[in-house]
Design goal:
49 strands, TRAPP_III_complex_Trs85, five-stranded parallel β-sheet, Ig_TPPC8_C, ER-golgi trafficking TRAPP I complex 85 kDa subunit-domain-containing protein, alpha+beta, 1320 residues
């Protein structure tokens, strides 16, 4: 069974009727003859034969009939102009009918059917093109029927006139066609049946056997109409206009252009006409075509054979010869009776040749179903670049090659260019229609062919209705393949092009279909864990957000222009949920968003402007009572999680986390003293305003106005009327939010009666046009109490802001007496006064203040004055050595604060690091013991500036009286004030520091510096050092092995204090501030070095003081500004340490510890191990130091011989606990590089010295330098090898802990000078 070809690939039959026949048909109420015969196409069950004489059955064999004069006139029209008219005609037909199509189609349940009315209309219009073209021969006439009737005065003369008529075709129209004569003999003809038969015989004798006598009744009046299939629409001829060169000739009649769906013929006439149509096809047209194919195929095959020269050479070589002359291949056409080959006129004198015989062979073979021959010829044409790629997809089996043929066919007619001509668009449309209508839907949509993409390729970048409908049909087919997002994209492209053509019903339908497909969820199953990790519900799918704005925006504008203003308002408002999504490809391709594509940040502004215009128009038409109740704002401006209630006694400043930290400090402090709880939230008081701080965030890229923002409040004490009478809610002024701005606004609420209030939402007018209410509900906690709740995500009911309003009973008001700007110098001690009053009705008997972890505060007792202390400076200071957490301070009260009572409290603030900061104080108070606590907050901002630049340094001392030398450098960095240094105090657990110089008596002027030198001598007792080291080692072992940290305290220390000035009087709060500053410095260092260790564990792990550390306290004052204060510097650790934690670390590293499957856990352990290895408690240094006594000048008379000069080397062990062995080797070749110009020291005698040094022991060795000539001798040529031993080993065996090797430093300049007396 042959494949059914599209109607555009069927034989084209032209009919030339005589004048009498036209009058006969008109009188019988019948259309033109070509319309009548078209009603009988296609013919069922037609059989053809191939060149191999194989029969090919055709279930349907279609024909196309046209009026010859119309075809001749149409051939004279320019092809580009006709293509333009065709595209406009198709768009006009679709534009007029699409409204009803859309209405009927939307009523269907399944809108994804294979066919749509607009696609069928497009296909019929494309296949209705019957005008011959230059580049293919399908529309070239295959047969011409010359029709007359016997009602003519002389029928034979009429037939002769038709046969002698010259065809008015251009030169490029193929002249190979079958001439057929049709004689219609009506019943009312003046000729009898015998005479009509004689006429028929005469015509057959004169013009050949291709003649037929059709006898019809044609009764009068005409019979009732009979329904017939609708004829395909055809392009009407161009209208006649004066001076136009493209109009039809005036002598040609205008044919009927409106196809009829009925035919007024009797049953007998219908049967006679059908018999004629079948006989014409089976007895005349098909045999004639088969004959042409056989002859043309012989010529085609001959041209493809091997050249005759090769055969002649073969015969000559093998001894044979041919005497038969070579046959000249000349295609013989049928005789005059069947083929019309008369000269034809050329309108423009063009010499364009008609389609080649090879192409006609391929076309004829395709029509006859000889696909084997057709494919071979089409392939040959394709290889020669003469077409064929458009037909091969219809004939060959589905394979990847088919897609290549399609691509080649489309690329040939329209290469990638900026603009497609009308002729190219029409040709691509015809190709696409042929492919889609011929291939089965299964093959067309298969993954091998992907035929829906062919339609998109055929549409190209054309912006005409046919191209848009190609995209729409491709989208429809993609839906059937479940490629929904691709279908949405193509629907959008189709709508975008149709909108430019003004076809709004289809544009809106395509946009709605794109919208429906974009919001449909992909059929992909995701793990439930995905939704849990993303904190979303599976039903929270809102569509493909990257394209939604590009679809909804033009749809909203179309709704507005078509009068659906309410729908447009909803669409424009819905666009805001896709904020800034116009940067997506779809939005940039939209015609209305060209300016948006240039600047995507303007998308929200365009959406808002359209919404304002639409809703303003709606209100102007419908009034203020416009139906906007169901119009909801799709985005939120209120952030419920950051909305809070602020009472009048709460501070506006300060982060919430800071206050939570202070509340935790209080809870930790009080849990060991009582069970009373702190009422953190507090209640509002009657007739006292409180505020709701609302955090607003604008997610849009443009500014918006929220007009008249206010609160929605509910109360269990009464209904809405009661709330209006007793609750005063402020309505603030309009709030303008700029693009992506976040802002907090406060709305005041005041209650005149006690009540329990629930703040449920915020109300405002969006842009002053749309009343909106946003809920302040916060999602409840995740429920996991039951197995069902653990398996299915379940949340507790939503939570709202709740507040109780009660009569004011207990309230404390606190404020600074002086609340002006505060600028402090670093280390300054500032006295400030606090005014505390009882603003409630009940007494207050206990008040505490909780500062921040790094706030240094001292509360002055009631019985102390403001003068300085007169006691003698302390020599020792006992410390518990604990990094105690910050603690609250009790406010001394002389008596209870009664209602309206007040008092003043003096506090001293010690300024810490240089920065801008807030002094945030949390005051805790209650009536009496056993009563619950209440709180209030006070905040004061201050800035700390640096006044002194301080640096310290230490190095081993050359003096035998002390071990180390310290230097303290001070620089005044103020611009205009002098700074006096009153006192410098040193604090250490193991080192006694003494000043080597007196304090500079004069003040330090701006940019002036001073240096104070100290000597450090060990106390000689290493008990404290060993005790603290053992404590740290034990605690670190517990930490590294993950054991429980016991809450024991580190060993206490007796701190030794040294003072530069012995007459300086200390304030009573100095000791408190020094300890506090040390705690803050240590806590800050530990938090940076050991972030994995909880802060609460610091007191049980780390001591406050390292026994080897030395702290400086510099007391200063600025008399001109009446400022004073002190600065703690803790940067120096003296003495030798011996990696106390080495064994602990090695034990952890060598132990077979179970590794964690989580890389984060393993990384944290590694970081903790490295932090402990680098900590001050695991420090390690060479304890032995060599000091060379240099600078000596020796005089000698070298005339008496060489000079022997003793050189003294002092070797000191700085370790407090470990003995050391040393080996000193003298070698002048090891001298430093900076002493190359000095003579090397030529030692003689003993050059290697060994010894044993106990802790803190010093020894000296003498070496002999043998000077042979005067000069300067470098003393840097030495090397010291040291072994540090373990103390108190069993049996007195020496155990090496560390080994070191030491040489003179590279810049060592120690030397000795030997002068010659003989030269004096």
């Amino acid at each position: 069974m042959a494949r059914v070809l599209p109607s555009s690939l069927t034989p084209h039959i032209c009919i030339l009727p005589s004048q009498d026949l036209e009058e006969l048909l008109k009188s019988s109420a019948l259309p033109s003859l070509h319309h009548i015969l078209q009603s009988f196409s296609p013919l069922p069950q037609v059989t053809t034969r191939t060149t191999a004489l194989t029969t090919v059955p055709h279930a349907s064999f279609a024909l196309r009939f046209s009026d010859l004069t119309e075809i001749e006139a149409a051939c004279r029209e320019d092809e580009e102009q006709r293509a333009t008219r065709t595209i406009d005609w198709i768009g006009d037909r679709i534009g007029k009918r699409c409204a009803k199509w859309v209405d009927d189609f939307e009523k269907m349940n399944d809108q994804d059917v294979a066919r749509t009315p607009w696609w069928d209309e497009l296909r019929r219009c494309a296949e209705g093109d019957h005008i011959p073209a230059r580049d293919e021969g399908w529309n070239h006439p295959m047969s011409i029927i010359l029709a007359v009737s016997t009602t003519a005065p002389n029928p034979l003369q009429a037939i002769t006139a038709l046969h002698s008529r010259t065809l008015d075709f251009p030169s490029w129209v193929d002249v190979t066609h079958l001439i057929y004569t049709l004689i219609i003999h009506p019943k009312n003809s003046p000729l009898s049946d015998e005479e009509a038969g004689a006429l028929f015989n005469a015509v057959r004798k004169q013009y050949g056997l291709h003649t037929y006598l059709l006898s019809l009744e044609l009764p009068s009046p005409p019979p009732p109409p009979v329904s017939i299939p609708a004829l395909v629409p055809r392009l009407p001829p161009p209208t006649i206009s004066n001076g136009s060169a493209d109009t039809v000739r005036p002598d040609l009649k205008t044919t009927q252009t409106v196809p009829l769906n009925t035919l007024r013929m009797s049953e007998q006439d219908i049967q006679q006409t059908a018999r004629f149509a079948r006989e014409f096809v089976t007895m005349n047209l098909v045999p004639w075509m088969e004959k042409c194919v056989i002859e043309w195929n012989e010529a085609y095959s001959s041209s493809r054979r091997l050249p005759s020269r090769l055969f002649s050479s073969t015969r000559r070589l093998f001894g044979t010869s041919s005497t038969t002359p070579m046959h000249a291949i000349t295609p013989s056409l049928p005789g005059r009776s069947s083929t019309y080959a008369a000269p034809q006129s050329s309108v423009s004198g063009s010499t364009i040749p008609p389609p080649s015989q090879q192409r006609r062979l391929a076309e004829f073979a395709t029509i006859l179903g000889d696909f084997k021959l057709a494919v071979a010829v089409w392939e040959s044409l394709r290889k020669e670049g003469k077409g064929g790629s458009d037909i091969l997809p219809l004939l060959i089996a589905p394979s990847p090659a088919v897609q290549l043929h399609v691509s080649h066919a489309l690329t040939t007619i329209h290469p990638q260019s900026a603009e497609l001509h009308s002729h190219v668009q029409l040709r691509a449309l015809l190709y696409a229609v042929r492919w889609e209508s011929t291939l089965t839907i299964g093959d067309f949509l298969s993954d091998t062919l992907e035929g829906e993409r062919w339609l998109v390729w055929a549409a190209g970048n054309a912006e005409e209705p046919p191209a848009a409908l190609l995209l729409a049909h491709a989208a429809l087919l993609s839906v059937r393949k479940n490629a929904r997002r691709r279908a949405a994209l193509w629907y959008f492209f189709a709508a975008n092009r149709l909108e430019k053509c003004g076809i709004k019903p289809l544009t809106m339908y395509f946009l709605r279909r794109a919208h429906e497909l974009s919001i449909s969820r992909p059929d992909k199953l995701l793990s439930p864990s995905f939704w849990m990790s993303e904190n979303k519900q599976p039903s929270d799918f809102e569509g493909f957000d990257a394209v939604m704005s590009g679809i909804e925006h033009p749809l909203g504008r179309l709704l507005y222009t078509t009068g659906d203003v309410s729908g447009a308002v909803r669409h424009f408002l819905g666009l805001l949920r896709w904020s800034s999504a116009s940067s997506s490809p779809l939005a940039q391709l939209s015609s209305h968003t060209v300016d948006i594509a240039k600047d995507p940040s303007n998308s929200d502004q365009v959406f808002l402007e359209d919404f304002q215009v639409a809703i303003s128009h709606l209100k102007s038409v419908s009034g203020e009572q416009a139906r906007l109740a169901d119009v909801k704002l799709p985005l939120r401006f209120v952030v419920p999680s950051q909305t809070c209630v602020r009472l009048a006694r709460d501070s506006v400043e300060g982060e919430q986390s800071e206050w939570e930290t202070r509340e935790e400090i209080w809870s930790s402090f009080w849990k060991h003293r009582g069970k009373e709880k702190l009422e953190r939230s507090g209640n509002a008081a009657v007739e006292e305003a409180f505020w709701v701080d609302i955090t607003l965030h604008n997610p849009l890229e443009t500014e918006v106005t929220l007009a008249n923002p206010t609160m929605i409040v509910e109360s269990s004490s009464g209904d809405a009327a009661w709330i209006r009478d007793n609750i005063a809610i402020e309505t603030t002024k309009d709030t303008i939010l700029y693009a992506n701005e976040s802002r907090t606004i406060s709305i005041a609420i005041k209650a005149s009666k006690p009540a329990s209030l629930v703040i449920t939402g915020v109300a405002y007018d969006f842009l002053g046009l749309l009343p909106t209410v946003e809920s302040l509900a916060r999602r409840g906690r995740r429920l996991q109490d039951t197995p069902q709740q653990r398996q299915t995500i379940t949340y507790a009911p939503d939570e709202f802001l709740k507040l109780n309003v009660e009569e004011a009973s207990q309230e404390l008001a606190v404020a600074f007496v002086d609340d002006g700007p505060l600028v402090l110098a670093e280390g300054e001690c500032k006295r400030m006064k606090l005014w505390i009053s009882n603003a409630g009705s009940r007494d207050i008997g206990e008040v505490w203040v909780v500062p921040g972890p790094e706030d240094q505060l001292w509360i002055q007792p009631l019985d102390s004055g403001e003068g300085s202390a007169t006691g003698i400076a302390w020599k020792t200071w006992r410390s518990d050595n604990k990094v105690v957490p910050p603690r609250p301070y009790s406010i001394p009260l002389a008596e209870k604060l009664v209602a309206a009572g007040s008092t003043e409290v003096t506090v001293v603030l010690h300024a810490g690091r240089k920065q801008k900061q807030n002094l945030s104080l949390l005051f805790i108070y209650r009536e009496a013991e056993g009563s619950p606590f209440h709180c209030t907050r006070v905040t004061r901002s201050y800035e700390v500036v640096q006044c002194l630049q301080i640096s310290t340094a230490s190095h081993p001392s050359h003096s035998p009286n002390h071990s180390f030398s310290l230097s303290l450098d001070l620089t005044n960095i103020l611009s205009s004030s002098n700074v006096e240094i009153d006192q410098v105090t040193t604090i250490s657990a193991n080192w006694t520091c003494s000043p080597l110089v007196e304090l500079w008596p004069e003040p330090l002027r701006p940019s002036q510096s001073t240096r104070i030198l100290f000597s450090a001598t060990s106390a000689g007792d290493c008990t404290s050092v060993n005790a603290v080291s053992a404590f740290v080692s034990r605690k670190m072992t517990n930490v590294l092995h993950g054991q429980v940290i016991a809450p024991d305290d580190p060993p206490p220390l007796e701190l030794l204090c040294g003072h530069v000035s012995q007459t300086f009087a200390y304030e009573p709060f100095v000791a408190h501030f020094i300890m506090d500053a040390r705690r803050i410095a240590v806590s800050r260092t530990l938090a940076q070095s050991h972030p994995q260790i909880p802060t609460s564990s610091y007191p049980s792990i780390f001591p406050l003081y390292n026994p080897l550390s030395v702290d400086f306290v510099i007391f200063w004052k600025i008399p001109s500004e009446q400022r004073f204060g002190h600065i703690l510097v803790s940067e120096i650790a003296l003495g030798a340490s011996h990696a106390v934690l080495r064994e602990v670390l090695e034990g952890v590293e060598s132990a077979k510890v179970k590794r964690s499957m989580y890389a984060e856990t393993q990384r944290e352990k590694t970081e903790m191990l490295q932090a402990i290895r680098d900590s001050e408690w695991n420090a390690e240094m060479n304890p032995v130091v060599v000091i060379v006594k240099d600078g000596l000048v020796r005089e000698h008379d070298f005339s008496q011989g060489v000079c022997m000069v003793p050189v003294e080397f002092t070797i000191r062990n700085h370790s407090l606990s470990h003995p050391s062995r040393f080996v000193l080797r003298l070698d002048h070749r090891q001298q430093s590089s900076v002493c190359r110009h000095h003579f090397p020291a030529p030692y003689c005698g003993r050059t290697t010295f060994r010894g044993l040094l106990a802790p803190l022991q010093t020894t000296s060795v003498l070496a002999q330098l043998c000077a042979t000539r005067p000069g300067t001798y470098a003393l840097s040529g030495w090397r010291l090898e040291t072994e540090v031993g373990e103390p108190d080993t069993e049996g007195g065996l020496w155990q090496v802990r560390h080994r070191y090797e030491q040489r003179a430093v590279t810049d060592d300049l120690s030397s000795i000078v030997v002068s010659d007396l003989s030269r004096l």
